[in-house]
Design a protein that fits this description.
Molybdenum Cofactor Biosythetic Enzyme, Chain A, six-stranded mixed sheet, alpha/beta, 7 helices
């Protein structure tokens, strides 16, 4: 199983003003594969809190994948990409580029996304949009890549469908 943490970053959701519908959308998509959601939290859009959770989940809990939801737009209050970038040891720009490229086809505003992706220790961290449709569309774009990425990062075999591709 691939251990996944979902971190929702939203001031309004953290205050309980709105529900986290994106989490439910991701839970459905992940249920179809070798994924186990072991960590979930909603926090306000505060860089120190974002970095604290990413550090704990990657370093202490040893999650395979952390998906952050929200806080990747151009607004002054969206800090997830910067906070995430500070926690990464290696960036994986192709993941974020693929998300933007493919989701742009459904929603041209995807081009304004600032999400990043990369690795901390043996954990893949990916920023996703905070809306239910945008997060689900983004996850579906990269879902076929995640088992291979986890296998390469962790060095342990991960059961997944062979895609026939190789970089070797």
């Amino acid at each position: 199983m691939i251990r996944v943490g979902i971190l929702t970053i939203s001031d309004r959701e953290a205050r309980g003003e709105i529900e986290d519908h994106a989490y439910a959308a991701l839970r459905e998509s992940l249920a179809l594969g070798p994924y186990e959601i072991t960590n979930y939290e909603i926090i306000p859009d505060e860089p120190a809190q974002i970095k604290r959770v990413l550090r704990l989940w990657a370093d202490r809990d040893g999650l395979d994948v952390i998906l952050t939801l929200g806080s990747i737009r151009l607004s002054n209050r969206d800090h997830a990409p910067e906070a995430t970038r500070e926690m990464l040891e290696k960036e994986a720009p192709g993941i974020a580029e693929l998300i933007r490229m493919e989701t742009y086809k459904k929603n041209p505003l995807a081009a304004l996304s600032r999400g990043v992706a990369g690795v901390r220790g043996k954990t893949l961290i990916i920023n996703l949009p905070g809306g239910p449709q945008g997060s689900k569309d983004s996850l579906e774009v990269i879902l076929p890549l995640i088992p291979e990425a986890v296998q390469r990062i962790t060095g342990r075999p991960v059961a997944h469908l062979a895609n026939g591709f190789s970089f070797d």
